[in-house]
TrEMBL record, chain A:
It is found in: Cell membrane; Membrane. This is NADH-quinone oxidoreductase subunit H. The chain crosses the membrane at residues 29-49, 99-119, 131-151, 171-189, 201-221, 227-249, 280-301, 321-347, 359-380, 392-409, 421-445. InterPro entries: NADH_UbQ_OxRdtase_su1/FPO (IPR001694), NADH_UbQ_OxRdtase_su1_CS (IPR018086). Keywords: Cell membrane, Membrane, NAD, Quinone, Translocase, Transmembrane, Transmembrane helix, Ubiquinone. It holds the Pfam family NADHdh. Belongs to the complex I subunit 1 family. GO terms for biological process: aerobic respiration. It catalyses: a quinone + NADH + 5 H(+)(in) = a quinol + NAD(+) + 4 H(+)(out). PANTHER family: NADH DEHYDROGENASE SUBUNIT 1, NADH-UBIQUINONE OXIDOREDUCTASE CHAIN 1.
From TrEMBL, chain B:
This is NADH-quinone oxidoreductase subunit J. GO terms for molecular function: NADH dehydrogenase (ubiquinone) activity; quinone binding. It comes from the Bacteria. NDH-1 shuttles electrons from NADH, via FMN and iron-sulfur (Fe-S) centers, to quinones in the respiratory chain. Couples the redox reaction to proton translocation (for every two electrons transferred, four hydrogen ions are translocated across the cytoplasmic membrane), and thus conserves the redox energy in a proton gradient. It holds the Pfam family Oxidored_q3. Gene3D superfamilies: NADH-ubiquinone/plastoquinone oxidoreductase chain 6, subunit NuoJ.
């Protein structure tokens, strides 16, 4: 490696490891670019995986097999779907408003992906750290509503218009409950322990200063040695519950999928969309689901922290009962073990494949998949990689739990009627949210 | 962090703001006007960011773009657009409009040429990490009274809207 390249690598690696590295313009620009590429590919792969998982899990919940034809256990089904969508004719209705019809899916995709720039996958693994991080996320995701309204109106058709009217009413209502829950979590960042930590990290902040920065919120949970889910039990839990319900409504998923209720509105606001443009809506919907789940993970589930994490800081190191050499190592090995278990499942699948000529290609493919998973597991065993990637693993695992819940909701709950939806939002969630906020503030007075 | 290519960002954002503001009043279709207004508001948020006011920029997006414009579009969608398209777009009030424009232009010119004394020469920008905290501090200490009055005003508006919308409460 040439001298200059080595020095660049050193500079960038070192800067990414120190807290407050976002202040360095060159290093932050380079790392931002790397993370943008990583997040874009990561989210796209996650959307593809979700597509397959949703069909499989829903099928198994309904005692069906789900996709089985394309690849072993239908593993290649999402790729086949993506190809079909790209080749499909892209129809624009004759009476549609051309510009707005084109602008709507673009708006939705841009907003769904812009949100990711403040999501902290680890203490240093984020595109950027903003002082207004959380506010930025909520603001940008609220622009997504505009896209849905534009799509519904520009189609110049009845079902889409009805769908987007429903959707805007629903999203505006649930945004308030969501905001109340979020504010109570932000309030918790200002309580005891947090202030000292910020002084060490940023060199600013007094004894009781809260923060909106996504990284700062996780840091506050680290400093207070608790996930906000368990803070002031059961207040944190109730706020989390409100957010968890509101976020399903915000992403228009079952049981709040009135904007695209098939039995009444065909496909809601995207009835008139087909081919590539429809696939943009699909991509944006799943990207938004991952994004709001990441907000929930960051605010209440301790972000990148592993369960029972000890307090790490530049000047302080407070271990707890569940930390220390051996236990730290055991938790650090979990990512690699997860991949080994997945590889084992794939390997068992390979062995159990029918021994027939027609299945030979599939068997080889599945074996290759098992090998790839095992290889990723091996890479994760390497100490340097293990240390850097652990945070991302725990964050992704928590988000994955939420994604599974989304599918589970869809498999179990019947769809709400519109007046029930409004009743729940305005008469139960918002008052509860306000009560939780006031009680949190009252309990926080002492600390 | 040192700002990069500041003037280019400023000119770009201002150009977007002005062009889309013009489109707000020249488009015949109210939905197109509303969407242009969204672009104006977003570029204003960008200008706030350049003035080291990230909190104001965030609130601008969340309130105006995410809240008010959504309600605007919600209402416009229910209006019969074809009827609107046939209506006359401009009222015959060019005399008043010209006078207002000239006065406003004169004011701008005066401030541009003689306004040095109005503003402090250079305000050191607050560090990015504490911007929101400082807004909170001044809002709840120095400007507590106006803040509360504004909230009471909003409450009156909410109750008024409910009273006007519902005959029987």
């Amino acid at each position: 490696m040439p001298q200059w390249l080595q020095s660049v690598v050193d500079y960038v690696t070192k800067s990414n490891n120190t807290p407050g590295w976002y202040a360095d313009p060159v290093a932050s620009a380079i790392w931002a670019l790397i993370y943008i590429i990583l997040i874009f590919t990561g989210v796209s792969i996650a959307v593809i995986a979700m597509n397959w998982l949703e069909r499989k899990i829903l099928a198994h919940m309904q005692v069906r097999l789900g996709p089985m034809r394309v690849g072993p256990h239908g593993l290649l089904q999402p790729i086949a779907d993506a190809l079909k969508l790209l080749i499909k004719e892209d129809i624009m209705p004759d009476q549609a408003d051309k510009v707005v019809f084109w602008l709507a899916p673009v708006t939705i995709v841009i907003t769904a992906f812009t949100v990711y720039i403040v999501i902290p996958f680890g203490p240093t693994h984020a595109v950027t750290d903003m002082n207004i991080g959380l506010l930025f996320m909520l603001g940008v995701s609220s622009i997504g509503v505009l896209g849905i309204i534009m799509a519904g109106w520009a189609s110049n058709s009845h079902y889409p218009l009805m769908g987007s009217l429903r959707s805007s009413a629903q999203m505006v209502s649930y945004e308030i409950a969501m905001g109340m829950a979020v504010v109570s979590a932000v309030l918790m960042t200002s309580f005891k322990g947090g202030g000292n930590f910020f002084r060490q990290i940023y060199g600013t902040g007094g004894a009781s200063v809260g923060t909106l920065s996504m990284i700062g919120i996780v840091r506050a949970q680290e400093a207070q040695q608790t996930w906000f889910l368990f803070k002031f039990f059961p207040l944190g839990l109730i706020a989390f519950f409100i957010f968890a319900v509101a976020m399903v409504a915000e992403t228009n998923r079952a049981p709040f999928d009135l904007p695209e209720a098939e039995s009444e509105l065909v496909a809601g606001f995207h009835t008139e969309y087909s081919g590539f443009r429809w696939s943009l809506f699909f991509l944006a919907e799943y990207a938004a689901m991952i994004a709001v789940s990441s907000i929930a993970v960051t605010l209440w589930l301790g972000g990148w922290m592993r369960p029972f994490a000890s307090l790490h800081g530049p000047n302080v190191e407070i271990p707890n009962y569940w930390s220390g050499g051996a236990i730290d190592l055991a938790f650090a090995l979990v990512p690699a073990l997860t991949f080994f278990v997945l590889a084992l499942f794939a390997f068992i699948g390979t062995v159990r494949m029918p021994k027939h000529r027609a299945f030979r290609v599939q068997t080889i493919g599945l074996a290759g998949f098992a090998l790839a998973l095992g290889f990723i597991g091996l890479v994760l065993l390497e100490p340097h990689v293990r240390d850097r990637v652990q945070d991302i693993f725990w964050f992704s695992l928590k988000v994955a739990v939420f994604m599974y819940m989304y599918i589970w909701y869809r498999g179990t709950f019947p769809r709400y009627r519109f007046d029930q939806l409004m009743h729940l939002g305005w008469k139960f969630m918002i008052p509860t949210g306000i009560a939780v906020l006031i009680l949190t503030a009252a309990l926080g007075l002492g600390s | 962090m040192q700002p990069v290519a500041t003037s280019w960002f400023f000119y770009g954002l201002s150009a977007v703001a002005i062009v889309s503001a013009l489109m707000v009043i020249t488009r015949k279709n109210p939905v197109h006007s509303a969407i242009s207004l969204v672009f104006t508001l977003l570029s204003l948020a960008g200008l706030y960011l350049m003035l080291y006011a990230p909190f104001v920029a965030g609130v601008q997006i969340i309130l105006y773009v995410g809240g008010i414009m959504v309600l605007f579009l919600f209402v416009i969608m229910l209006v019969n657009i074809e009827h609107n398209l046939r209506e006359e777009q401009f009222n015959k009030q060019w005399l008043v409009a010209t006078i207002a424009t000239v006065v406003l232009g004169a004011l701008f010119g005066y401030v541009y040429y003689h306004g040095k004394g109005f503003f402090p020469a250079a305000v050191p920008p607050t560090p990015e990490q504490v911007n929101t905290q400082q807004i909170g501090m001044s809002l709840y200490t120095a400007y507590m009274f106006p803040f509360e009055i504004a909230s009471v005003l909003l409450l009156v508006a909410i109750i008024g809207a409910v009273v006007m919308a519902k005959k029987r409460i």
